[in-house]
Amino acid sequence: MIVIVAVIVVVSQTSTTPSTGLYYPPRPVPATVLSEITHVPASSYNAVGVDTTSITPPVVDPSQKLLTLDGKPEIFALLGEFCPYCAAERWAIITSLSRFGTFSGLRTMQSSPIDVYPKTQTFEFNTATYKSPYVAAKLVEFYGQDKATGSHPQLHKLTKQELSLIKKYDTSSGTRSGTIPFSDWGNKVIFPGATYNPQPLQTLSRATIAAGLRDPSNPITKLILGTANYMSAAVCYIDGGKPGSVCTSSGVKAAAKALKISV
């Protein structure tokens, strides 16, 4: 399990927005980047498969009652705009969920410039919506961006049910709100922390990372799509194996085999 530790240092900043204290103003995702992250070729997923050496696999608990939202299996994720590990995790969340539905309203984001792995390029879910015939997703940006003081505001209040999920499954954290990133896929597959280290994404632009998803030999692509295969297998596990075109793919089958689940 990767435990998140925020390291705060004092540095000069030139990109602070004085009116809000934000370091980075979110913007709509450019059309080319959006297409590349939401329409990754199936061949890339299949060629990547899974990697148990660089990626921390999720925890599987088939005994739990299925988590649902609006009559569908639910994916609940807890993230923070300042968080570099969340920045890396969002790439996999977006690519995997795009195989089962459609995002709208995604905006760009970068992690804190005064934390570890500063300015990791990513996206944010505050204005995003997700629609799928198979699953529902509640993707919560619990914390905002770091301000000049190094603090980050709480953006959302968690429900009692969400707090109970975190308390039950996020055993790596001693804090009430849990470790971020955290994601619960139907109460059956849990990612109680970051799946991979953000360091390889350092200094790379969002466009470069997105374009690399076409190349399964790219080391960063292996991290993102390897994680996405685990997440895709989690969706197939909780939604009854739909759609078959995704759930019977070799990349998802490899992830399911590694997790010892049937899809």
Protein described:
This protein is α+β, with helices and mostly antiparallel strands. The protein has one domain. Helices cover 30% and strands 16% of the residues. The strands form three sheets. Strands 1, 2, 3, 8, 9 and 10 form a six-stranded mixed sheet that branches. Helix 3 (84-97) packs across helix 6. The longest helix is centred in the last third of the chain and has 20 residues, at 219-238. Mean pLDDT is 89; it is low at 1-20.
Q: How would the blueprint of this fold be written?
A:
Blueprint: H1 31-38, H2 42-48, E1 59-60, E2 68-69, E3 72-80, H3 84-97, E4 102-104, E5 107-110, E6 121-124, E7 129-131, E8 136-143, H4 160-169, E9 182-185, E10 189-191, H5 206-212, H6 219-238, H7 244-247, H8 250-259
Parallel strand pairs: 3-8
Antiparallel strand pairs: 1-10, 2-3, 3-9, 4-7, 5-6, 9-10
Mean pLDDT: 89
Q: Stretches where pLDDT falls below 50 for ≥5 residues?
A: 1-20
How many domains comprise the coordinates? 1
Can you count the helices?
8
In short:
This protein has 263 residues and is an alpha+beta fold. It has helices spanning 31-38, 42-48, 84-97, 160-169, 206-212, 219-238, 244-247, 250-259, and strands at residues 59-60, 68-69, 72-80, 102-104, 107-110, 121-124, 129-131, 136-143, 182-185, 189-191.
Entry keywords:
alpha+beta; two-stranded antiparallel sheet; six-stranded mixed beta sheet; 10 strands; 263 residues; disordered N terminus
